[in-house]
Queue: 3 jobs
Job 1
Amino acid sequence: MTQDRAPSREVQKNRIMREEKSGATFALLFGAVLLIVAASCSLRQDKETVAPTGKSASFVANPFCMACHANFEEETLAATHKAAGIGCERCHGESFRHRSDEANVTPPDLMYPKERINPTCMMCHPRQQIPQTASHQPILEVRLSPLETAASDGQTPKYCTDCHGIEHHMKVRTTRWDKCTGKRIQ
């Protein structure tokens, strides 16, 4: 006759470790998939072009975003990308929970602290395709990769959004999040 016993502490500990490993594996795989999706646009051979009519080249889900972020409708960076068929979700993720949160306490899926702006832009706008102009020189000279956090030459860093996207931020915020962690700042 067998007795049903509670699992030993060692068995419980092993089960917890397996669950933690599977959660970490899922997070790692999910992160890798996000990185591949984000990088996929830089692997395209053809350049994204603006439709001649000025209308979107394909469906862009910006109306979901514009419900709250109406100031971006005519903002240059958003309008230029929209005209090329590139929506907010390409850079900020689908952000389903964020856009469904009327209380505005859920951050977007992806936010960008300053040091991640240039590497992120260069995923779709590779260094070799950026025009060699004097205004681009500080960005082109710095060899930032997605893993680097700052310029090593001691110069004041310059970011793509210093010129392209000066207005690409909320003028009035009711909620602030840490752009690295996504945690709400009180």
Note: The longest helix spans residues 9-40.
Job 2
Amino acid sequence: MYLLTYLLTYLLTYLLTYRLIYLLTYLLTYLLMYLLTYLLTYLFTYLLTYLFIYLFTFLLIYLLTYLLTYLIYLLTYLLTYLLTYLPTYSLTPYSTVFLEKLTGSQPVKKFPTFYGTRRFITAFTSARHLSLS
């Protein structure tokens, strides 16, 4: 009886302890290594490839679009200023002199006598109607 009790105790203790330790060690080692390598590799791969690529492409496209739009706006404004305002304001004195040379008259001397008369109003309204039509 003693031998049987000893054998049963030894076998149960040895088998349970050995198998449990082996099972836990193997499972934990395998599972931890598998989970850590697979999950970390998958997560890093996913993060680096998809998330960063999408994020960088979105930011680059957005920034380039915004910068190009602003640059086009700036160039349009500068060209408008250079092609319209600058020649208009710089050539105004010359155009007055040019018109005086073309017409051969000096409107400053004739202005006070001509202004306010029926002839002035008729000439002004007919010139206005011609320029609008």
Note: Residues 26-105 form one domain.
Job 3
Amino acid sequence: MSKLRVFISSVQKELENERLAVLSLISTDAFLQVHCEPVLYEFEPASPEKAAEECLALLGNCDICLTIIWKEYGHAIDGVSIIRQEYRLARSKMLPVLAATPSWPNVSRSFTASRNAAAASAGCATR
């Protein structure tokens, strides 16, 4: 049985610790490490000129898209952020998309609620 490839989507620099936490969880959890393979773009060979294309191609070879949304949505290409492009591609391929926002204790609930509203308006489910 092949492992499910889980693409971790977020702004790399803004959410580096969260991305690494998901990587660690999938790599060390007894169940997840047997059934899932984490896929993070920054660990793949890439060319700066074709970063967006390569990132989307990598997602195209995955089974699940886990999107972590916070303050930024990445650079825009033709007026559409890379996070939105990843979401659109995942949906077009009928991949399950899991969307999350960090829950930090020093951030007000109203700010988190507004981020959840923004994610929902972007077409992402929130908890």
Note: The mean pLDDT is 81.
